[in-house]
Design brief:
GO terms for molecular function: serine-type endopeptidase activity. Belongs to the peptidase S8 family. Furin subfamily. This is P/Homo B domain-containing protein. The chain is an alpha+beta fold and 261 residues long. It folds into 2 domains: 122 residues, 3-Layer(aba) Sandwich (Rossmann fold); 105 residues, Galactose-binding domain-like (Jelly Rolls, Sandwich), CATH 2.60.120.260. It is 15% helix and 25% strand. Strands 5-12-7-10 form a 4-stranded antiparallel sheet, with no helix packed on it. The chain has a 4-stranded antiparallel sheet with strand order 6-11-8-9, with no helix packed on it. It has a two-stranded antiparallel ribbon with strand order 1-2. Strand 1 and strand 2 form a beta hairpin. Helix 1 packs parallel to helix 3 and helix 2 packs across helix 3. It is globular, with a radius of gyration of 22 Å. The N terminus is likely disordered.
Length: 261
């Protein structure tokens, strides 16, 4: 078929912006294509009981794309571990098609990262090519540090506030320090009248800022968080040694709202 006879919608080039259902999170490594609303193109795929559809949407469309790319990488190199795959996805992700979205920043080793899209769009060709020659990473090493809150503990606070907690990281209880970060977890216990008014932001020694918990206006839970693990991959590749800062703040408009941590 000649190009002039093709339907005009086949030449529609969508703007690559966040979908309305996206949740921001610093644990996201990368993203794939999805859809926004019924007026915009969706994912074309096979359908049941037969034929194809051009209306496949949401995370139900994007997750299989990621799984298919990962399957191709495993076919190219069956020795890949789950951490190898995360390295490959992260190192080959392309942020440029999504650069018009606000919120991109450069982490401590120079990689562009976003709370919306991780390190960018998954690139199947680049990922498979890198997988062919990839050498399995060494065994994962984990260091744990505990922040001890001075008395009073728990500490009650009312109304709007901002508190900073710092932790110096220079070694490891096992004697072997982590020199190259992959995953960072913060386990936090906080009680608050309206959990959605809390915001947690982590700053690494290299200056990388990760919003571990953004405000959520519709979250009215009053139980808070109990030893909740907040995960970030935005410091990937950084040297963790130095001073870390966790900023806990409230965006409440209720002066009587109370918190304890």
């Amino acid at each position: 078929m000649e190009a002039s006879n093709l339907p005009s919608e086949l030449f529609y080039i969508p703007l690559l912006y966040r979908p309305w259902y996206l949740e921001e999170c610093p644990s996201s490594i990368a993203t794939t294509y999805s859809s926004a609303d019924f007026r915009q193109p969706a994912i074309v795929t096979v359908d049941v009981p037969s034929g194809c559809t051009d209306k496949h949407t949401g995370t139900s469309a994007s997750a299989p794309l990621a799984a298919g790319i990962i399957a191709l990488a495993l076919e190219a190199n069956p020795e890949l571990t789950w951490r190898d795959m995360q390295h490959l996805v992260l190192r080959t992700a392309n942020w440029k098609p999504l650069e018009n979205n606000p919120g991109w920043s450069r982490n401590g080793v120079g990689r562009m990262v976003s709370n919306k899209f991780g390190y960018g769009l998954m690139d199947g060709g680049a990922l498979v090519n890198m997988a062919k020659t990839w050498k399995t990473v060494p065994e994962q090493h984990i260091c744990t540090y505990e922040y001890r809150l001075a008395s009073p503990n728990p500490r009650p606070i009312v109304g709007r506030f901002q508190l900073n907690f710092t932790l110096d990281v220079n070694g490891c209880e096992s004697g072997t320090p982590v020199l190259y970060l992959e995953h960072v977890q913060v386990h936090a216990t906080v009680r608050y009248l309206k959990r959605g008014d809390l915001k947690l932001t982590l700053f690494s020694p290299a200056g990388t800022r990760s919003v571990l918990l953004p405000p959520r206006p519709q979250d009215y839970n009053a139980n808070g968080f109990h030893k909740w693990p907040f995960l970030s991959v935005q410091q990937w590749g950084e040297d963790p040694r130095g001073t870390w800062l966790l900023m806990v703040e409230s965006v409440t408009t209720n002066p009587a709202a109370s918190v304890s941590y």
